[in-house]
C-alpha cells in the first residue's frame, strides 16, 4: 500500500504527458498542470490517503481495431479520511484504464468507480436517498451484499 503525499504527487505529475487526459466520476480534464492541481486539491480534501494496486493487466485491442496503443487496467483500493465530514474514514475499490505515450509517460488515465456507493451514501440526506433508491431497484429474493 502506498501513502500519498505532496512530494509523491509532485513526482506523479512528472510521469504524465503535457496534454494528458484524466477522468474520474468528478473530473474530466486535460493537461499536466490541471492534473497536478486536481491531485493537490485531493490532498486538501482528504487525509491519510492510501492507494493499493491489487491487479494489473494488459488490454489488447482486437486485430480489427485501428487503436493499437498499449493500454493497461489496474484494480485498486483507495482510502482516506474525508475532512469535510469530520475525518470520516472512506474507501472505494475501482479500476483505471491507463494509456502510455511512446516515451512511456501516461497520456490518458480513466478511473471507474461507483461514486454513489463509494461516497454519496456517506453524505447526510443524500446518502439516505441513495440507499433507498438502491434498495428500491435491487433484485428481490436474493441476499444483497
Characterization of the model:
With 145 residues, the chain is α+β, with helices and mostly antiparallel strands. The protein folds into two domains: 111 residues, Nuclear Transport Factor 2, Chain: A; 32 residues, no CATH class. Strand 6 and strand 7 form a beta hairpin. The radius of gyration is 17 Å and the shape is globular.
- CATH names the topology of the largest domain as Nuclear Transport Factor 2, Chain: A
Low-confidence stretches: none
Just name the CATH architecture of the largest domain. Roll
Beta-strand fraction estimate: 35-45%
Helix content: 25-40%
Instruction: Give the helix/strand class.
Output: alpha+beta
Largest sheet: 7 strands, mixed
Domain count, please report it. 2
Helices and strands in order, then pairings?
Blueprint: E1 2-3, H1 6-13, E2 16-23, E3 28-30, H2 32-45, E4 46-59, E5 71-82, E6 88-100, E7 106-112, H3 115-118, H4 126-137
Parallel strand pairs: 2-7
Antiparallel strand pairs: 1-4, 2-3, 4-5, 5-6, 6-7
Question: Would you kindly provide a brief summary of this structure?
Answer:
The protein is α+β, with helices and mostly antiparallel strands and 145 residues long. 26% of the residues lie in helices and 41% in strands.
For this entry, give a set of tags.
26% helix, 4 helices, 7 strands, Nuclear Transport Factor 2, Chain: A, seven-stranded mixed sheet, 145 residues, 2 domains, alpha+beta
